[in-house]
Amino acid sequence: MCRVEHGITSQGGERVSAETQGLRHAREVEGHLTWLDSFTSAALGILAVASGIYTYLGVRGLLDDGGALSLFAAVAYSAAVSTGIFVFWSYLLRLLPAMRTAATRLWLVLAMVIGSAAIVAMSSWLNAAALAGSAAVEQHLARTVQDYQVSLERAHEITLQGQALALDVGRTRQGFEDLSAQEAAGSLSGLAGQGAVFRVLTQKSDELAALEALILAQEGPVLAAFVEGNAILSRMRALTVAPGKVEDRSVEFSEESVRLAGVITTLRQLSVAALVDRAARDLAQSVVLPRLDADNATGQAAQQATIESLLAVLARRAETLQAAAADVLALAPAPEVIYTPISTADAVIRYASNFAPSWAGAIAIDLLPAVLVMIVAVAQAAIRAGREPLRLEDQMTVSELRAAVLALREIEGGEAGKATDPAPNRPLVPDTPKAGT
């Protein structure tokens, strides 16, 4: 019973087995790999050199000294990075596709992952610093300006809340002035004139008037400080987008930030909430009681009763004023902002989310050969899949078969020549003379 071999029919009508098709595919892929291998090393070298150049720019941005030693150090580091990238990917391009077992491929893949992480650590972040370092520092300046603006506005808001206490102080003062007018008319103690009760009311109204005047006097300095702070913020915003080196602009930006910090501190000190709180505490406690000046005991008793009532009213007004001041003091203070100069590399890392394209390009230029490794591995696997079902003699091409036949003929011709050679000449031995001759 004959075996029918599955296959496909070629254009000439002959049956071509699936193994032959696989062999042809393997030879086709081998031809492509041979052509690609002719410039793969050059392309890998160009990628390594490009990464080294950007690494050099990143290192130069980190080194403060501009001398020859720093230049040599940056060149040496970038050269080491370029060499490491080229050697690492050359090893993997040759060895990983040639592995046949899953264990060896897994170990080399693990080595590729570790090596890729090392390349990112020693090169990619510096490449990103070279690509987007200045923009990242400008982003840091812009964020700092926003933080200072929030702090300035918050300090000004709290100070204005303190200035609003002048209304509470004014109402309390006006209340005591009205009471003093009533006492002068004899409506409180029943004794008209400016006696002991009148003097107590006048004493507290004068204290509150002085406090109110002090609060109102702060309006000018508060407004001037806020205007100055906004002017400094405008200059700082201009520095974030001004032309020129970002390092020089950062120095001027730092000077302006110191001035703005002083303005914010001034605004905090101009807040009168603490002053009003202390005045409210002293309002009821520091009362100088005058001598009762009524002509008789009945009048003095009326004055004493009125003064005690006034002290109770004074305590309630003081509590109200103290509560208003406590509300201002309980407000969340303006956040502390301190500008810290930052290098290009640190800025790129801190604001990495804002520079994703730069990071992607910096990493891609270092890890692009990993894609080549996977492509070559897949191609080598296809070649092995096409060749392994056939025996070695079935995989030979016509040219290989011709070369093998010629080699066999040369071998056979050499062996035939040795067989027809005469025996080697033996040395002549003189005949031994017979005895008796």
Structure, described:
The protein has 437 residues and is an all-alpha fold. Helix content is 76%, strand content 1%. The chain is built from 13 helices and 2 strands. The longest helix is centred in the N-terminal third of the chain and has 62 residues. The chain starts with 6 loop residues before the first strand and ends in a 17-residue tail after the last helix. Keywords: Membrane, Transmembrane, Transmembrane helix.
Count of individual domains: 2
Helix content: over 70%
Structural category: mainly alpha
N→C terminal distance: 86 Å
User: What spatial form do the alpha-carbon principal axes imply?
Assistant: rod-shaped
Beta-strand content: under 5%
Spatial extent as radius of gyration: 49 Å
Transmembrane segments: 33-57, 69-93, 105-126
Region (Disordered): 415-437
Keywords: Membrane, Transmembrane, Transmembrane helix
Keywords:
disordered N terminus; disordered C terminus; two-stranded antiparallel ribbon; 13 helices; 437 residues; rod-shaped; 2 domains; mainly alpha
In short:
The protein is an all-alpha fold and 437 residues long. Helix content is 76%, strand content 1%.
Spell out the blueprint of helices and strands.
Elements: E1 7-9, E2 15-17, H1 18-62, H2 68-95, H3 102-163, H4 165-184, H5 196-217, H6 219-241, H7 246-269, H8 273-285, H9 297-329, H10 344-350, H11 356-367, H12 369-387, H13 398-420
Antiparallel strand pairs: 1-2
Helix pairs in contact: 1-2, 1-3, 1-12, 2-3, 2-12, 3-6, 3-7, 3-10, 3-11, 4-5, 4-9, 5-9, 6-7, 8-9
